[in-house]
Amino acid sequence: MAKVGLREWLALAPVFASGKLARYSDETGGPLGRFEADFCAKFGVRHALTMSSGTGALISALIAAGVGPGDEVLVPAYTWIATAAAPLAAGAVPILVDVDQTLTMDPADILRKITPQTRAIIPVHMSNMVCNMDAIMRIAREHNLAVIEDACQAVGLRYKTKRVGTIGDFGAFSFNQFKNINCGEGGAVVTNDTRLFARARMYHDIGSMFRGHLDNANEPPMLGVNFKASQIQGAMLNVQLKRLDPMIARMRERYDVMSEILSKNKRLRIGPHNDIGNAAGLHVIFETSDDAKQFAEENKRGVYRLYDSSRHVYTNWQPVLQQRTGHPAMNPFLWTDRRIEYTPESCAQTLDILKRTCRISLGENYPVTLVAYMARRMARSTPPTAGSLFYATT
Ligand SMILES: *Cc1c(COP(=O)(O)O)cnc(C)c1O
Fold it and tell me: How far apart are CA 320 and CA 177, in angstroms?
């Protein structure tokens, strides 16, 4: 998380003084326009649009891609509930896909979950761990599926040479207070497709009906909602964007230091990554759930077992599991060809992995010496029960 401080505070004063607080009150584009141009340049993508939230970005991307009633959208069983809720807001239903030990969508399970109704995949780059995008893009192209990357928890991370969010048809980002860069609440959608971008922009601004200056790529106006961001958010994000790459560099450095120390204890198995060269998230996988529990209890600060961060586990998404929407008739589960059912066993592989895995904070705002000290202490903590020796890191 990039800190918010004096520079953000100073950046807000000119916005207040100008009186141009709304997106379209500044005809030059204002701070939002500047942020979007810089974001496009930094991320190597053609179009970016700041929005009120990452959830809004996901929904706008789905609508722009033409996803709707009767469609199935693949989402991971381990993510923030917004990923599963977004297809429902577009009239489609989420289908849960297992994660593998990289804590991201298991491509093998994607193949098992595809049906003739599948229209899109939302791979989630979970807590700065990137998905296997090569495999996911290959499957998507073979089955003619739209790919909307949920990069809300991995803003700025790279998969091989590209920033996540710029590989699929769309990328969705969140700038809420707990994400890599933040303006309290906010989000963005990016795409290289001008027509899809025009559709997403129209949707996020009740059709952009009276914005004659916008290029809508000959798309007829369509109705939408209001997910617009304000210039206040733009001003903060301009400062935050400058903090992004230095912060990721600090994460990467601490990942290397900590993983090297921890791997000296042959009983601690460091979790795999889809792109180890860009790793900025550290997790250890144990043989049993009890071993993971014990490791988390002994280390406490900066360590938790993933299964215990319950809000990200599908078994706790009550309104999704119970298929409950605001109005009973506006329920996408009524509009599918087949009956969709979720049970606690829907994604048993995910539950098994989350129960045996601990996440270790990289402490990117702490000195490396302190982080190394904590890693040495962790590496010495009571070793897991016998049997975990099977997990020697060879
Ligand atoms: C935060 C988050 C979102 C939603 O972002 P908001 O800005 O809070 O709406 C979506 N998906 C994931 C994985 C997230 O972590």
Answer: 25
Give the strands of the sheet with 72-76, arranged side by side.
Answer: 47-51, 187-191, 170-174, 146-150, 118-121, 72-76, 93-97
Six-digit token pair at 152?
Answer: 């809300």
291 CA distance to ligand 1 centroid (A)? Answer: 30
Kindly give the distance from the C-alpha atom of residue 167 to the centroid of ligand 1, in angstroms, as a whole number.
19
Which residues approach ligand 1 with their CB closer than 6 A?
A: 53-55, 79-80, 82-83, 124, 150, 152-153, 174, 176, 187
Digitized pLDDT (tens) for each residue of the chain, 394 residues in all = 888 999 999 999 999 999 999 999 988 999 999 999 999 999 999 999 999 999 999 999 999 999 999 999 999 999 999 999 999 999 999 999 999 999 999 999 999 999 999 999 999 999 999 999 999 999 999 999 999 999 999 999 999 999 999 999 999 999 999 999 999 999 999 999 999 999 999 999 998 877 878 888 888 889 999 999 999 999 999 999 999 999 999 999 999 999 999 999 988 999 999 999 999 999 999 999 999 999 999 998 889 999 998 899 999 999 999 999 999 999 999 999 999 999 989 999 999 999 999 999 999 999 999 999 999 999 987 655 544 444 444 3
Q: How many domains does the chain have?
A: 1
**Is residue 175 one of the residues assigned to a domain?**
yes
Ligand 1 atom closest to the CA of 126, numbered from 1: 13
- CATH assignment of the domain containing 208: 3.40.640.10
Active site residue 3: no
